[in-house]
């Protein structure tokens, strides 16, 4: 997906990069392995972690848009052993919710787990950002962490399903990359 065709969301502070742009930043192979992994993130985290992975819903609220449309913003944290590994947010447009009302009832269930059970769901290419300290998503991601690196890596993609697409952004905290070889 090229940057010029990307749709921005209220969380965007600067352009997103395609895979070539990411590689130009030379993030290191361990980071590339996680950011470019095209499977679902929650199952991979479960394989990576020696302790159970949990999901906590941080916020789920309607967001008014132009006209009478109301989108839904969902923020979650994926943690293992009390350490936050990923902060993620999902943007559900009103037209997608109207055709898929179950999206409002996910509770503690990962979105990916629900989507993989559906037929005809596809995923866009990933886009990437390096988010710096002080940016709202960075601060939200590290709010329970003692570790505050100078930046965090993020990726986003769209899941296309009946009625439109759902934008999912995932911000990776350092614990994801620390001290292990990621399963393939």
Low-confidence stretches: 1-10, 180-184
Order of helices and strands: HHHEEEHHEEHEE
Question: How much of the polypeptide forms β-strand, as a percent range?
Answer: 25-35%
Give the fraction of residues assigned to helices.
10-25%
Instruction: Compute the number of structural domains.
Output: 1
| Average pLDDT metric | 86
CATH-wise, what's the superfamily? Chorismate lyase-like
Number of strands: 7
CATH topology: Chorismate lyase
The CATH level-2 architecture is identified as 3-Layer(aba) Sandwich
Characterize the overall form. Answer: globular
Work out the helix count: 6
Query: What is the radius of gyration?
Result: 16 Å
CATH class: Alpha Beta
Ends apart, CA distance between termini:
24 Å
The computed structural class is: alpha+beta
The main sheet comes to: 7 strands, antiparallel
Descriptive report:
This protein is α+β, with helices and mostly antiparallel strands and 184 residues long. It has a single domain (15-176), classed as Chorismate lyase-like (Chorismate lyase). It has helices at residues 19-24, 29-35, 41-48, 94-99, 111-115, 136-142; strands at residues 53-64, 70-80, 83-92, 122-123, 127-132, 151-161, 164-172. Strands 1, 2, 3, 4, 5, 6 and 7 form a 7-stranded antiparallel beta sheet that branches. Strand 1 (53-64) and strand 2 form a beta hairpin. The radius of gyration is 16 Å and the shape is globular. 27% of the residues are buried. Mean pLDDT is 86; it is low at 1-10 and 180-184.
